[in-house]
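Cont'd.
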Amino acid sequence: MEGGIEMKVMTMVSAINNALDIKLAEDPMVVAYGEDVGVEGGVFRVTEGLQKKYGAHRVFDSPLAESAIVGTAVGMAANGMRPVVEMQFCGFVYPAYNQIISHVARFHNRSRGRYRMPIVIRFPYGGGINALEHHSESMETIYAHIPGIKVVIPSTPYDAKGLLISAIESDDPVIFMEPKRIYRAIKQEVPEDKFSIPIGKAKVLQQGNDLTLIAWGAMVREAQKAIVMAKKEGISIELIDLRSIYPIDKQTIIESVKKTGRAVIVHEEPLSFGTGAELTSIINEEAFLHLEAPVNRVAGFDTIVPLPRGEHHYIISPEKIYYNILKTMKF
Amino acid sequence: MEGGIEMKVMTMVSAINNALDIKLAEDPMVVAYGEDVGVEGGVFRVTEGLQKKYGAHRVFDSPLAESAIVGTAVGMAANGMRPVVEMQFCGFVYPAYNQIISHVARFHNRSRGRYRMPIVIRFPYGGGINALEHHSESMETIYAHIPGIKVVIPSTPYDAKGLLISAIESDDPVIFMEPKRIYRAIKQEVPEDKFSIPIGKAKVLQQGNDLTLIAWGAMVREAQKAIVMAKKEGISIELIDLRSIYPIDKQTIIESVKKTGRAVIVHEEPLSFGTGAELTSIINEEAFLHLEAPVNRVAGFDTIVPLPRGEHHYIISPEKIYYNILKTMKF
Amino acid sequence: MFSEFSPLEDKLFQVMDNDGNIVRPEYMPEIDGERLVKAYKDMLFARTADMMAVSYQRQGRMYTYPPNLGQEAIAGAMAVVMRENDWLVPAFRELGAWLAKGATLKEVFLYFMGYEDGTVFKNAKNILPISVPIASQYQHAAGLGYSIKYKNEDSVVYAVVGDGGTSEGDFSEAINFAAVWEAPVIFLVQNNQYAISVPFKMQTRSINIAVKAYAFGIPGLKVDGNDIFAMVKAFQVAQAHARSGKGPVLIEAVTYRRGAHTTSDDPTKYRTKEEEDAMAQTDPLDRLRKYLISQNLYDPSGEEELVAQYRKEVDRQFSEAENYAPYPLEDVFKYTYVELPDDLRQQQVEHEKFLKWKEALK
Amino acid sequence: MFSEFSPLEDKLFQVMDNDGNIVRPEYMPEIDGERLVKAYKDMLFARTADMMAVSYQRQGRMYTYPPNLGQEAIAGAMAVVMRENDWLVPAFRELGAWLAKGATLKEVFLYFMGYEDGTVFKNAKNILPISVPIASQYQHAAGLGYSIKYKNEDSVVYAVVGDGGTSEGDFSEAINFAAVWEAPVIFLVQNNQYAISVPFKMQTRSINIAVKAYAFGIPGLKVDGNDIFAMVKAFQVAQAHARSGKGPVLIEAVTYRRGAHTTSDDPTKYRTKEEEDAMAQTDPLDRLRKYLISQNLYDPSGEEELVAQYRKEVDRQFSEAENYAPYPLEDVFKYTYVELPDDLRQQQVEHEKFLKWKEALK
Ligand SMILES: Cc1ncc(C[n+]2csc(CCOP(=O)(O)OP(=O)(O)O)c2C)c(N)n1
Ligand SMILES: Cc1ncc(C[n+]2csc(CCOP(=O)(O)OP(=O)(O)O)c2C)c(N)n1
Ligand SMILES: [Mg+2]
Ligand SMILES: [Mg+2]
């Protein structure tokens, strides 16, 4: 208990489960479905126990077809429902890409506001769990570039709960990407009751004066480790957890870079045409005269994510972040 | 005739047709197919006459399914063929997105070089022809961001022919985007014989000292009009036609910006997370100390492309480019 | 009925022949004379509007338009059976069905003049906007079907796709989902023999489309789509099936696209005049007219006058559409999100600044 | 045969019963005794390797692995019928089939240890790499089929998918293309009753999978997938059909996934011990062993020794895999493109600089 608020230790998995639980209880129009979501409770157990609690009409297994999972959500939303669908892994969203870009993102515009698409498409993404091919990629750009949808990535159990509740309550469709590498790696006290975190707001996790470090998802923790290294060298870093890939919280970023004059961006997705490019452009456009060094992108290679034995080459280490911090400081 | 080379006046449509003709004649492993590609010769008549000339086993209509069109090309390529497939419009590539990202782009890597994917996926893209929904969009980023494929966009009949020949001869898969707005708008003398233009090389269309203007596809012509306006004000502009979205010709861009100190990028696709962001980042990283103003992105709004009656709001005019040139010059 | 007209044997469900004779009276749906005349008139109105749309387009007053000529009985039948709370999930070639649902011609014209406003169908209940990506709308129909069961509503979904659309993965996925969910959806395929230039026999090797129902464990029926009676009966049976909780039905309406694919298309490139002429003999309006005359329900001598009247009405609505308000910049931004992101607002502001500057230039 | 065992009536094609008795001798394929014993031993070897893979994984010496237990007769039959120039287009649960094609166990282990090298199958002719995105590989099979006809080759394509995979759009699109092209493809569905936790009856409402062939106008056959004789016969008939230019065939091999979906899965969450025990009675190895014994072709008293020998061989290949060279940084970059873009080369150089710096840090 903290100021009258019941707290509970949660992992990201249990926090997401809890957010779904709260919304399923509160709003009869919310349903959750996808491959193995019902009886099994999801391959990562994110929806565990929810079918038992809410029934198989509200939390259920679908046949194996991603385009149908997303496409049927469009139909449900048109009739007033708020579907939360799960894609089993980041690499299996693509069959649904046409439904996402052609309908989920466009129905509201096409119908001039008549039909809203309060759909949440959740899926685990990112590397670091020694998985098979297609299970480790990060491709936030191919969603964030689509006009008409929002893209959210939490980095802690607390944020996962608060952001997912906002996502489900959003009248716009939300792609909700879950950094599976930290699904169970971080335990945190999270309020048991409902709360929400606004979509579109980054969070300054740590104040600093010398350099702005921007990260999200599983990279936040790596960034924090790099900051410890940098601190030993007397470098004072401001850490921003982006949280919302689109809309981007320009203001928080710009204010920070105006103060520090330097920026390093960290992301798992491939470097070229990635989110780092958009952030660099924003900084270039809005804080140009304050920049003392080029914005530095620390990102995945422009290669296919290697299978587990090669993944250590690909994965961004705290050392690599630190190395780039030094490089940017010395520019 | 020019120095012994037979020239012929071509539009982009006839130049592409000519490139296909040459490669079909030369290489029995080349086939061309897609919706209405055979008997009809394509809805834009790009493949007109080719079925008659090469037979229905080499140039043919497929059933209506984009994922199958691309997915079957993967199988053909695995058995040594070089399929050139057409997606009917930019807005109908998405059903094939899974095959593109999961297989076309990955087969060579997955098989450690055993299977090459010399596949060309051609499609008309971009606005300005008063078309129905889904017929006017530009989304180069969602292809360029995928490791394992190349993305090419010609701006003239000459380039279309030379680049398409390179694309068909490339052992790597190529997304070949055709700016349909200028399919027939530009007539140009093009050599009748085979020639090729290397993928990955931008072209400096005009030398200048004050500002680097980067465009591609249908935007090159608009950029040229803006340059005329700027010239009247005594602004000397260097115009780069990017031609290859990935790989990007960093060297040409950087050299130019190092000389001019200013850059404006023009593209039809939505601003955020677009190709302009990548170009801005490259300039920021490699020409930082030479920059006298922020790199300026003139791009489509982050909205869905409006239907024809609203499209004039969305389409980038020469005036808008000129306005942004002035803005960048005055910074 | 489903077993009597088994698609496995490629049986065609037909009630009325090409000459307007009732050949299977036992399947003749009960429709009173007045309603039937209305159905004919609706089809005639739709055809008049459709043909005028083609000429407006030729005059450069409208953009690309997909003609309905020859396919009107399908919508005519839908108009008879669809209830207000039934959902219509259209593709893009169902003028009569949209009108039946309560869309106005003016809206339809607006759409093909390039206004999103034209596909809102403001006063039409339970209709989705026009869907261009082939077969993708079938998924929405399956989802609507789920929502109807979930919310305990009494609606049925009518989803439309063309013969070409049956090759898309979404076609199969959607029917499979709806079947597993036992959702009340009527999956209608307008088999007009062509997907742009590609003839049906090159689209699939299956003997017909109705037989594809076997892949999903649901009933399939191949119906003469130019026979309004057969279509009405088929819809009635399918609707009863769907409402009773037995799940979806697949209906193949065999018809012929007498016109071009769209106004940008030239069918002489891929089919013969002979074929077109032969198929003209199956025209759905002619058949219904013959029947009505034979039953003394309709006096054809008034038809010219009627058409003239319809032409006026079409023209009136077309004018209204032509005089529609210009498309404000605001509308480009307003609907991409329910909640406009700051970023987007700023893009609009910046663009307005540019427009002011441009104005000042002159 | 296709009409005798019509999937419409949900007929199951079976030659041998659960006790190893030949119940339909007229369909017994001609396989000589030696070949048959080899088939059994191959299946036994595959099972031994498969079970050891599961325990290696449990020991943390391999990553996620999808067990084949109970499904071995399908690959066993493929091994009998597939010719060297036939193509295998795998999913991810066909250990025996990969080995039959010429893949080594070492390679398979390498793959599940996290090396792309393990799915190159260097010495296996005409095999595609393991494909993870469900059903997407069916499209490749259709394209291969086209290329075989185009190049006038004599191969047949064996494409594999699971029961869950039949719901994906790619499944239907691919068969439709191959059917229209009359391409020589055998579309095989391993119906092991589950897609991870989702049972077959929730995957589709169709009475079986073979019946889905009607959607594409091709023959479909539902075969007892745990009966190697039925599978061999079905493949032979399908192969003859495909090679004669009649186009593809859909074969549903009814089997049971006795193990977990993968080593990360816990089937007790979604099925009962009773079901598992009952299905164990249909085990394909047991059945073939009973048959061989009844024919005096095989002496079971040697089996323990045989398995011990296999275990050694498996262990040997596993050790080789475990001692495989480390994964060089270069390999991350080398294969993304045939022609490495400068950009990518530079990323490698930059990373190497960082690694040097990091090394120096220590
Ligand atoms: C996914 C997709 N691919 C391609 C197109 C382009 N296209 C528009 S209509 C059409 C043919 C449709 O044929 P059919 O389904 O038979 O319907 P019909 O036009 O005959 O009514 C095609 C290929 C599209 N709209 N969507
Ligand atoms: C497109 C896609 N979606 C989801 C997955 C995750 N996934 C892996 S195996 C599997 C179930 C496959 O079931 P089935 O097709 O019956 O094959 P089986 O595993 O039983 O052999 C799923 C959903 C995937 N690999 N690809
Ligand atoms: Mg059609
Ligand atoms: Mg299965």
